[in-house]
Every structure is written in C-alpha cells, then in structure tokens.
C-alpha cells in the first residue's frame, strides 16, 4: 500500500528504511520515529569559534594557521590524527548512552572529491564516513549526511568554506560537481539503513546576499540533485532546507517528490510558537515532515524551552554541536591545553605578510606542544560532559541520577 509522502504525491512502498509518511517519519516497521539528534560539527569541517579563534574562521583559514605554525608535513599529520581522534567509537557509544538516536554529520566536499581529478570520488572522507556509519549502526544510531560545504559554496561565509560568496548558484561546474558528489554518496549508501537520509545543502544563500536574484536558483538545483540521487537510490529520505540560513521554505519550492523532509534552523530567537509558525503552516499545507536540523549556542534554559516547544509540536530535532574547545554550549567541552592562548593569539593576529607571521609566531616549540596536547585532549576521558546542556535536551548523563552530578 502506498502512503502519503507529500500533498498530492504518492509515497514509497515500505522498503525497510526510514520513510516520510504524511507529516511524520516512520521506521522500518512503519512505527513513528522521533529523532533526537546531535550535530558532529568541527570534526570533518572545523569552525573557528569552536577553537576560540576570532580571525581564522573557516576550515581553509584554520588549516593555514596550523601549517604556518608547524609546517605542511606536520600539519598533514595533525589533521589525520584530528579526524581519527575527534569522533571515535567511544563517542558514538556515549551519544547513544545519553539518549540521542541520531547524528547529523557535516561533510566538506574537499574530503570526498579529488583535487586533481574533480570528477573522481576520492579522499579521506569516504573511509572516515564508512567507519562512522559502522559505529552508528552497531549502536542503533541513525545518520543524516549533511553537505555543509558544497563546491563553490552554498552559503557564502566561513561555515561553507567558500571564498565568501555562494558561487554554487552562479557556477554550472560547481553544480555539476555537487550533483556528482550526491549521486556518489547515494550510490555508496543506497543499501545502508543506518543512513537515515541526505541533507542536500546546509543553510544556502546567506541573508546578506541578493536573495531576489539568487533564491530562484535553489529549487531547480534541488530538483536536479534529487533526480540524480533517485537514479541510484529510491529509498532514503531527502532533506531540503530553505534559503537564508534554512528559514525560507518558499525558495525551496513546493514538494515535488515523495520522501522529502523540510528542515529549518533557528538560533537566538524567542522559544515560542510564533517563531516556528511558518514552518508549522508549511507542514500542514503540504503534509510533509519537519526537522529542526540545527539550534543551540544559547543558555541551558533557552535550549530546554525550545526543545520542549519542538516536542509539543511533534517536530524532530538535532541540536548543535556535540563537542568543541573550551566552550560549555555543547555536549562535551574539550579542555584547552597549556599554551593554547599562544596558539589563539597567533590565529587572531594579522598574518597577511611574512613579517606579520614572524612577529606573531609563538616561541619555538610552543605551538607544536599545544597542538599535540589538543589532540590528546580530544579523548573522552579528558573531556567534560556539560550536564546542564544534556539535561536541557531532556537527557540524563550516564551514571548520574536525575538532578545529580555527571561524571567527568
């Protein structure tokens, strides 16, 4: 029997995968599935604020800082270790123990497409993603693949690792490569039920660009990407976000295929129904599920109120983020190592000329020791669980009774 995927569009037959059924997601058995997720930001796609950097914000800028501090060969080794240590099987086990049932994984295209042969699906991202999905499958955690940094840049700011403009919407080559990547991801994971679905573009077209000119390009690109995915994968859910930081669903167009979910992001707004009324109206009009793909970076009280609001309106959620350096607005706080202030000072200093780089450089050996210690501090036994944040999400730290203290 067919189920309703969106208004006027027949949904897919039961396939053993999570599916959209009317305004809700259902699991492989056809039972309602309520996603309670956390975003794995800063792992494959570093963000400067999660390192407490002010000037070096994007992955490319952070990579430049590390290379300027310790040289290219050592920097390559640092990033290989970073990706190996930042998210491990133990992290996924903790995520499950805390009560989450899903993760959203930000992906940068540079780790999945060869720099020398752009059409070739090659890079360290594939093995890392395979390994993560295996860990999640073992723990019963659903995985949402999120293209956070598309070729050309879909947002036009540090979070998409772009040159500072959403060139994706002006470049046919960038759109073609994005299509190649999504088709490749879908072909690889088409038979993997641990992968819940594909979040096509994170926060396309920031509000400070010409929305009237750029927004009309979003819906056609979504149609192109969905068509490419469906050539190889008829099963997985596909998430579509609105323009202007995932807020403007009109730019994404009306639902045009079955098994679509519409995802919005909300930061620093009032945790009241009026904040999400437009998304609720879209859900009711088009009979599609909603997914809060990102929120957080606020007080524990705000997070609690907003999470309760989402659950009151039966909206699946994924808060942000799991882990970052010396910041309490996440599940885990990575302790800054000794001499981290020297690394931060260098990252925040003007480094436009070689003379400026020389003047800003820490004393010999300081940066290398600090970066090596940072890698050590990524392990769970050195991180601190932010109990207030976890409880605000309606979850309980392992080993802590309700109202008790969380273990370090």
Please characterize this protein's 3D structure.
- Helix content is 38%, strand content 16%.
- The chain has 14 helices and 16 strands.
- The longest helix has 18 residues, at 172-189.
- The N and C termini lie far apart (50 Å).
List keywords for this structure.
408 residues; alpha/beta; 3-stranded antiparallel beta sheet; disordered N terminus; disordered C terminus
Multimerization state: single chain
Strand order of the largest sheet: 6-7-8-9-10-11-12-13
SSE series: EEEEEEHHHEHEHEHHEHEHEHEEEHHHEH
Average pLDDT over all residues: 94
Major sheet summary line: 8 strands, parallel, barrel
Structural class: alpha/beta
Which radius of gyration do the C-alpha atoms yield?
21 Å
Low-confidence stretches: 1-14, 402-408
DSSP summary: helix tally: 14
Q: Quote the distance from N terminus to C terminus.
A: 50 Å
Which geometry do the CA atoms define? globular
Give the beta-strand count. Answer: 16
Task: Please give the share of residues in helix.
Answer: 25-40%
- Strand content is 15-25%
Ordered list of secondary-structure elements with their pairings:
Blueprint: E1 4-6, E2 9-10, E3 19-21, E4 24-26, E5 32-33, E6 36-39, H1 59-70, H2 72-86, H3 89-98, E7 102-108, H4 125-139, E8 142-149, H5 172-189, E9 195-199, H6 211-214, H7 218-232, E10 237-241, H8 243-246, E11 260-265, H9 273-286, E12 290-294, H10 300-312, E13 316-319, E14 323-325, E15 332-334, H11 340-348, H12 354-360, H13 366-377, E16 384-385, H14 387-392
Helix pairs in contact: 1-2, 2-13, 3-4, 5-7
């Amino acid at each position: 029997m067919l189920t309703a995927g969106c208004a006027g569009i027949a949904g897919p037959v039961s396939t053993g995968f999570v599916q959209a059924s009317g305004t809700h997601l259902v699991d492989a058995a056809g039972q309602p599935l309520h996603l309670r997720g956390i975003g794995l930001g800063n792992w494959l796609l570093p963000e400067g604020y999660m390192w407490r950097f002010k000037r070096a914000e994007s992955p490319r800028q952070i990579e430049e800082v590390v290379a300027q501090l310790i040289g290219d060969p050592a920097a390559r080794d640092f990033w290989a270790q970073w990706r190996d240590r930042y998210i491990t099987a133990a992290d996924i086990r903790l995520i499950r123990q805390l009560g989450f049932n899903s993760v959203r994984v930000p992906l940068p295209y540079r780790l999945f497409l060869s720099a020398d042969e752009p059409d070739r699906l090659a890079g360290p991202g594939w093995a890392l993603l395979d390994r993560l999905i295996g860990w999640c499958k073992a723990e019963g955690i659903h995985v949402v693949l999120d293209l956070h940094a598309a070729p050309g840049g879909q947002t036009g700011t540090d979070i998409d690792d772009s040159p500072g403009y959403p060139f994706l919407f002006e470049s046919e080559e960038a759109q073609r490569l994005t299509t190649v990547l999504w088709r490749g991801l879908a072909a690889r994971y088409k038979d993997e039920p641990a992968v819940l679905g594909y979040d096509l573009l994170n926060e396309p077209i920031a509000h400070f660009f010409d929305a009237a000119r750029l927004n009309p390009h979003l819906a056609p690109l979504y149609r192109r990407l969905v068509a490419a995915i469906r050539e190889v994968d008829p099963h997985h859910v596909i998430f579509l976000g609105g323009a202007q930081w995932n807020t403007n669903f009109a730019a994404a167009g009306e639902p045009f295929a079955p098994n679509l979910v519409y995802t919005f992001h909300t930061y620093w707004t009032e945790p009241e129904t009026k904040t999400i009324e437009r998304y609720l109206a879209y859900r009711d009009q088009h009979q599609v599920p909603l997914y809060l793909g990102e929120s957080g970076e606020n007080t524990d009280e705000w997070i609690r109120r907003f999470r309760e609001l989402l659950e009151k309106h039966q909206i699946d959620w994924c808060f942000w983020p799991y882990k970052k350096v010396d910041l309490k607005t996440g599940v885990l706080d990575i302790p800054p190592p000794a001499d981290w202030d020297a690394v931060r000072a260098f990252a925040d200093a003007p480094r436009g000329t070689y003379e400026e780089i020389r003047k800003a450089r820490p004393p010999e050996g300081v940066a290398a020791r600090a970066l090596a210690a940072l890698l050590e501090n990524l392990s769970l036994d050195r991180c601190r669980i932010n109990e207030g944040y976890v409880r605000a999400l309606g979850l309980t730290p392992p080993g802590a009774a309700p109202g008790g203290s969380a273990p370090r």
